[in-house]
């Protein structure tokens, strides 16, 4: 299942790959770079950080 965030990361990774000369064997590096760039965008919906229990900013409030 894909989502908007993953689509953005995929497109950004492809752009990076093209810009860097379309070299083979660096897909993971480009994916990680793209993920960081997309997640750094203002208003980015980062699913991973929302699920990270160590990230206090995204932790839901305790039950009342």
Automatic annotation (TrEMBL):
Q: What is the lineage of its organism?
A: Bacteria, Pseudomonadati, Pseudomonadota, Alphaproteobacteria, Hyphomicrobiales
Residue ranges of the region described as Disordered: 35-64
Matches recorded under InterPro entries: DUF2934
Instruction: Provide ranges: composition bias, Acidic residues.
Output: 36-47
- Please report a single Pfam family linked to this protein: DUF2934
Protein name (record) = DUF2934 domain-containing protein
Q: Where is the composition biased (Basic and acidic residues)?
A: 48-57
């Amino acid at each position: 299942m894909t989502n908007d965030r993953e689509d953005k990361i995929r497109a950004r990774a492809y752009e990076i790959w093209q810009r860097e000369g379309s070299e083979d064997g660096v897909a993971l590096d480009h994916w990680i770079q793209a993920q960081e760039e997309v997640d750094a965008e203002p208003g980015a919906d980062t699913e991973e950080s929302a699920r990270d229990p160590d990230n206090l900013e995204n932790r839901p409030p305790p039950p009342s």
